[in-house]
Every structure is written in structure tokens, then in C-alpha cells.
Design a protein that fits this description.
The protein has helices at 14-19, 24-31, 77-86, 104-118, 137-143; strands at residues 10-12, 35-40, 42-45, 65-68, 94-95. By secondary structure, it is an alpha/beta fold. The protein has one domain: TIM Barrel, CATH 3.20.20.150. Strands 1-2-5 form a three-stranded parallel beta sheet. It has a two-stranded antiparallel ribbon with strand order 3-4. Helix 2 packs parallel to helix 3. It starts with 9 loop residues before the first strand and ends with a helix. 18% of the residues are buried.
């Protein structure tokens, strides 16, 4: 089956999940091994009494679902960067900008620091390895009287 091929991978873009009202964080937990690219793009979904998911014929400013400048939407980037890191992602985080309210130059100037503030340096050793030594199961068993 082609979907199980190593050549089938994902360009993850949480903004589209927001517009479709999907769980964009849970998706990472399921498909982390297939995510090979990441568009850091924000969006919001704000339905009204007159328009919801199918508000596509309205102008971008009036639509319930619209792309926003990074940091101005509803995407939880702290969770995304954490889950991607936990899943082993180590590739690019690319700012993709679309916004009907803010100029592109302003969006880029504000977006780059947002990405930088969410980048995670993976530790070289476990956080609780304060002694810097491997565990010695045989010694521990002897101390506990189990050997």
C-alpha cells in the first residue's frame, strides 16, 4: 500500500487544522514519524450566528476561519514545538505568512522571533542525571538485598 511507503511524508501545517476544526496537536502524536517539514502558520476560527465552517464566500476579513499573522491566531505553538521535539522532529520550522489584517513585512518581523522563542534544544543527557553516571543494576540489587 502506498500510504505505508517510506516515501509518503507530511508537511505539517497547523493553520489548516484550525480552519477544519481538527486536533492539530493529537495529529503529531499519531504521525510524528511522517512529519518531515513544518509550516509555522497561524489561523483562527471564530464562528458567528451567521457563518461557520462553510463561510467560504465571505471576504477574508469576514470569514470565521482565516489565516493570521504568527502569534495573532489560536494555534498553541508551545504544544506543537514540544510534541514535535518529543516525536523526534529535527528539521526546519518555516514561517508561512498569510494574513488579511497585517502587512507581510510586519508579519515577518514579528514572526521570526516567535519561532526563535519556541525552538527547543534537546538535552545531551537526562534532566535527572545529576550525578553523570549510568545506573548499575547489579550493584543496586546487591544494596537492596535482592542479589
Amino acid at each position: 500500500m502506498i500510504a505505508n511507503s517510506a516515501r509518503v511524508n507530511i508537511n505539517y501545517d497547523p493553520s489548516h487544522f484550525i480552519l477544519q476544526c481538527l486536533d492539530y496537536v493529537g495529529f503529531i502524536d499519531i504521525y510524528a514519524s511522517r512529519i518531515k517539514a513544518f509550516h509555522v502558520k497561524d489561523a483562527e476560527f471564530r464562528p458567528s450566528a451567521k457563518a461557520g465552517v462553510y463561510g467560504g464566500y465571505l471576504g477574508w476579513k469576514e470569514r470565521p476561519g482565516r489565516f493570521r499573522s504568527l502569534g495573532d491566531g489560536q494555534v498553541d505553538f508551545k504544544q506543537i514545538f514540544s510534541r514535535l521535539t518529543a516525536g523526534g522532529y529535527s528539521s526546519w520550522a518555516v514561517l508561512e505568512w498569510e494574513c488579511c489584517f497585517k502587512d507581510a513585512a510586519q508579519g515577518a518581523a514579528e514572526g521570526a522571533p516567535v519561532i526563535a522563542s519556541h525552538l527547543i534544544d534537546v538535552p545531551a543527557k537526562a534532566f535527572d542525571d545529576f550525578a553523570g553516571a549510568d545506573s548499575d543494576t547489579a550493584r543496586n540489587r546487591k544494596i537492596l538485598g535482592l542479589a
